[in-house]
Structure formats: structure tokens, C-alpha cells
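Regression test attached.
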Amino acid sequence: MSVLIYAETEGGKVKKVAFEVASYGKAVADQMGCEVVAVSYNASDADVLGNYGITKVMNIACEGNFDAKIYASGIQQAAEQIGAKVVVVSSSADSRYLTPLVAVGLSAGYATNVVSAPSSLAPFTVKRSVFTNKAFTTSEISSDIKIIGVSNNAFGSIENSVSCTVEAFEADLASSTVTVESVDKATDKVTIADAEVVVSGGRGLKGPENWHMIEDLAAVLGAATACSKPVSDMGWRPHSEHVGQTGKPVASNLYIAIGVSGAIQHLAGINSSKVKVVINSDPEAPFFKAADYGIVGDAFEVVPQLIEKLKAFKAQA
Amino acid sequence: MIIQPKRINRNKKDMKILVCISHVPDTTSKINFVESDTKFDTNGVQYIINPNDEFGLTRAMWFKEKDGAEVDVINVGGAETESTLRKALAIGADTAIRVNTEALEASQVAQEIVAVIQSGGYDLIIAGRESIDYNGGMVPGMIAAMIDASYVNNCVSLEINGDKATAVREIDGGKETVTTSLPLIIGGQKGLVEESDLKIPNMRGIMMARKKPLNVIEPIGAATKAVNINYEKPAPKGEVKLVDAENIDELINLLHNEANVI
Ligand SMILES: Cc1cc2nc3c(=O)[nH]c(=O)nc-3n(C[C@H](O)[C@H](O)[C@H](O)COP(=O)(O)OP(=O)(O)OC[C@H]3O[C@@H](n4cnc5c(N)ncnc54)[C@H](O)[C@@H]3O)c2cc1C
Ligand SMILES: Nc1ncnc2c1ncn2[C@@H]1O[C@H](COP(=O)(O)O)[C@@H](O)[C@H]1O
């Protein structure tokens, strides 16, 4: 009996999101009284997972681009090899792509958007967010093997230093029918999925020519940029920045919304961000009901000042 | 067990498409629960085609218009979902299939849909990236694994040429273009078509939809593996702290010292 976590890597390095997944796996393993093992692909620094309670990493060497079917097959075999009863994954686009395949392969029940450690082991129950963060449910997983997709930033990374061995795992990887032709990814930009801070702009910014304010503010904070749906529909910003119920979910530590009214569909997608700040000229904007901090004011006056003051604050910090 | 879908080598114009339709509460719905918080309160709730599926359905219509494809839509659910299926027929689908059982969770739904796929001989199965109600994001991937078909999730563009498909997948921080072969399953979303391309059923479509087949079939009775046992709403939020627009230092101070986020 053991717990397996899938530690994602990027360019051979373990991604930060894996630390939260590891912390979750460690918590479940402690509840069950067993060890927690990680499986990763092409990790060169896998022993960092020892800081989060992982005692063993099974590292699979696999050339080429990420492929859901191939990656799923290795994770499944790692789970079988160690007799994992619980498999923990993140909520990244890649994890959400491959995990349903692992679930079928292991005949496992899979719960996504899980926000806390299991509330009970027998029956096995977890709390997860549903209705795009408008509610929570307790789900009971009845299969022998259980898969948990941890909601970003819901559990947090908990340091727990143990000695960690990294082994090469020779999996019999599947062959795929999907070939990657090209990848178009801005490597210098923080992604909404990984960001601690997200700065988002709405229709109140009047036009794409004013987005330098959003970008400059994001740059000072090391933040990702996002937008409301109409902003992406009008082509002011790319679709990939559209957040909300029908766009990307945001679960950052800080979400700053500028000139966004706070429609129910927008709020649904950003509700699980920890701290929300709104800057809006209309004191009646619904966003003020959802936010933690707010400034009633004209973005064109407030934001440039905020950028300057933050620069000064960062310089002295 | 892996069941290979029957794919008869067809001409392009005979492509058979299945669009999976999830029947979900309108995005403005108030979310409440009844029966000691064990059931979703449907009182006063308007149901719609899951937005991700609506993009996929419109994309399927384009294949039909351009290449003459046949488009079926499917829902696993009770009789109450038929209005949603009729809307899909009014938008232009040819046949609707309702698997007559309450949808309890993804692996059950996927197995029920697979049973239909086995007899249907579909070349392309279009599902959504996720349903906006339970946010599972699992059904298309599970179907793909069960029938061992090609699978592209977060699909924002799809072109088909004979047996080959070119798709664009949204990844964290960018996009990836892939090529693959049919039979194919996608988890689709906005981008497959744009908002402004969505088809609104017109009077003629609605009239025609009444005459189109809506076949109700009995479930295979697939088992569930993970079910929701009860629900709760998030704790009410405290009041917003307003900071004067002239006093931005105070905002920075609060974010640094009180919220600890910068
Ligand atoms: C099915 C469906 C799904 C949807 N899904 C989403 C979704 O996923 N995400 C999403 O975002 N929306 C979604 N929407 C749209 C949503 O209902 C709102 O229309 C949208 O969020 C509004 O965008 P906005 O706040 O940018 O624009 P507006 O509502 O136009 O708000 C602009 C705001 O800017 C403020 N403002 C104006 N000038 C200034 C200034 N100078 N300084 C400061 N503030 C200013 C105004 O007071 C106003 O509050 C969906 C709608 C539907 C029907
Ligand atoms: N009950 C259902 N009937 C038909 N299709 C469904 C059903 N539930 C989910 N789907 C399809 O699977 C996609 C992903 O749903 P989910 O895994 O529930 O998030 C949806 O966008 C639909 O295309």
C-alpha cells in the first residue's frame, strides 16, 4: 500500500505545482500510514521533492513532447508497480488531459478540484469545488484505487524534509497517434495557471491600446495577465487570457481586477483566488461585493500611481 | 478491455460525428441545494447546452455544411434533458440520442456513451473540455481510453482531411498544433468557433427539430466510482476594505502586512 504523486516537470525541472501535489500526497500517506512515492518524466532535480515528504522518485526518461497517452501509460505502470491505492495529480492542463486515461487504466474513481485532505478514509471522501467555485461537494470514491486532482493553491506546499532517492523507472510506454507539429509558447511570461499574482483587465480599460497599464503592473508584481470575456471576444486580448466560468480558472494568491464589473460568470472563475483587489470607477460594481480590498476610482489615474508606488516598494524591499 | 470503434472507411462527405451534450444550469443560475443538501435545487433554474459543447456543436455544423457530415447528439440523462437535445436538433443536428439514466459521474457517463459509440461507427466524437456544473473534465478522456481512439483536449481548432486531423490544443501559456488520425475524440472549447459564430435556432430549425428523431435508449447500467454525497455553499465573505484613491500607499501596506500577498 502506498500513495503515488505525479510530479510535473518543465525543461527537466520539477514544477512548483508538484510541491503542492507532493504535500497533499504526504498528508494522505500520513493518514493511511504508508509511504509516498513520486513519478516524474525527465526530472534532473527530482530530489527536491524530498523537501515535501517524498521518499522515492521513479523518474521516467521519455524523449519528445508531452503526450497524454504516453505519459498516462508510465504513470499507470508506476502506480501498479508500487501498489498505489491513491494517486495524486495537479489541476494543470496537462494533468487534466492525461488523468482520465490513467483512471480508466487503473479502473480508478477520479475526483477533480479537490480542496482539502480526505475527510475520511473508509468510506473514502474528499471535498471538491463544483459549479465553478459556487459550491463544494463531498464526493465518495468507491473504487479500490482513488485518484485525486488537487485544486491549485487550495492545499498549499508544506515543507517536510525527508531523504529522497531517485531511481530510473523503465516503463513500457504506449505509442501515440497524436504528433506535435509545433508549440507556440511564450517562455518569458508567467502563465495564469502557475501565477501567484494575476492582474486582469476588463472593458473599463476602453481599448487594447491601454493594456500597457495591465502589463506594466503585472511586470512589477511578476504576475500573469488576464482579462474578462468581452475583452477577448472583441480581440483586445488573446482567448487564452479569458478567465471565468467559460474561460480559465484562476486560483492565485492575489487577483487584481481593473475595470472589470464582476459579473457572476467572471467571479465564478476567480473565486478561489485567495485575495481579491478591485479597482473600478463605479462604487456599485458587483465586484466590490466579492473583493477583499477595493479602490473606487478611475483606472487611468489609479493604476499608473500604483505601478510607481509598487516599484518604489519593491526597490526598498 | 479495449473495444475498437468500428470505423468503416468512408468518403469525406459521409463522416459521422457524435456531439456529446451536457445539460447544465444557465451560467447566471443561483446555486442552492435541497433534501438536506444532498440534491441540487432545480427550482427556477434554466438549463442550457453546456457552453463548451455549444462551440463543438457549431463546429460540427460547419463540417456538415462543408462536407456533408451526419451529426448525432447524445446526452446521458433523464427526460428533463430532452429540451436541451431538441435545441441541439434545432441548431441542426440530425438525430438525438438520450440514454435514459441519471448521470451520476464521469466514468458511468463515459461507459454509457461508449456503448452507443460501439454501435454507431463514429469517426469524430466532439465533447466539451468540461461541464460547467460539476467541472469534471473527464468524460472525453475516459471515452478515448475506453475505445482507444485518438484524443485531443482543450481543443481550440480542428480541421479534418480524409483520415487525418489537424488540431490546436491550448496549453498552459500557449498553444500546440498537433496532427492525428480518426477516429478522434476532442474536448472542445471556445476557439473551435467564435462566440459570434454560435448558431441560434431559428423558427424553421425549431419546427424541423420537432420532426427529427430523438431516440431514447436504455442504459447498460454502468457502475459508478465517485459520486457526490452532499453539498455546501462557500462561507459568506466579509466586507470589502475600501482604500481611498488618493491613498495608494495604504493599499500596498494592507497587501503587504495584512494579506501577506506582496
Ligand atoms: C454564457 C455566458 C458565459 C460567460 N462567461 C464569462 C466568463 O467566463 N468570464 C467573464 O469575464 N465573463 C463571462 N461572461 C460575460 C459576463 O456576463 C460579463 O458580461 C463580463 O464579465 C463583463 O466584462 P467586463 O467586466 O470587462 O465589462 P463591463 O461589464 O462592461 O464592465 C466594465 C467595468 O469597468 C468599469 N469602468 C469603466 N471605466 C472605468 C475606468 N475608467 N476606471 C475603472 N473602472 C472603469 C465600469 O464601472 C464597469 O464596472 C459570460 C456571459 C455569458 C452569458
Ligand atoms: N450526461 C452527459 N451526457 C452527454 N455528454 C456528457 C454528459 N456529461 C458530460 N458530457 C460530455 O463530456 C464533457 C465533459 O464533461 P465533464 O467530464 O462532466 O466535465 C461535456 O462537455 C460533454 O461534452
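Expected vs. actual: identical. Residues A 202-204, 228-231, 244-247, 259-261, 263, 265-266, 269, 279-282, 285, 298-300; B 27, 51 surround flavin-adenine dinucleotide (ligand 1) (CB under 6 Å).
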